[in-house]
Amino acid sequence: xxxxxxxxxxxxxYRQVQxxxxxxxxxxxxxxxxxxxxxxxxxxRATTRSVxxxxxxxxxxxxxxxxLDQLPNSSTRLYARLNVVDSILKLQAENATxxxxxxxxxxxxxxxxxxxxxxxxxxxIQVLGKLGNLSERQQQxxxxxxxxxxxxxxxxxxxxADLDYRLSWQL
Length: 171
Known about the structure:
Layout lengths: L1 H19 L3 H23 L8 H16 L4 H19 L7 H18 L2 H17 L3 H18 L2 H10 L1
Helix pairs in contact: 1-2, 2-3, 2-4, 3-4, 4-5, 5-6, 6-7, 7-8
């Protein structure tokens, strides 16, 4: 009971921040957190219901994507896109998103190009890892391995032990 009450209070606060935030970046961060928490709550409810209602999550994802499309290419936009991809992958696992795996691949490819343009190697590694994961879901084993190995080499070369660990496990 307390978990639900606190979760709903947090969602209310995220919405309040979106309404009063002085910058698009803060609004985007609050909307991203609202989306992630709503996904978690919907998944938690799914254990007690036979068919979860993902419509609110999908609406939030669409709002977030719209806000992302309005931002200039920046680290903020890049990491927000990574959060969107993570949320879509969660939805995909629940068969609750209209985005197909090829649509996700296109979104990830765009995000990879942005990461490379910005020279953000940490983001590049994360995107390559997600492309590897997505290829694995499509049972494209050689492609999955290529993306994951490329990401792993970059993680090791740059000393990102946390990403190195995750990618090693993915292989």
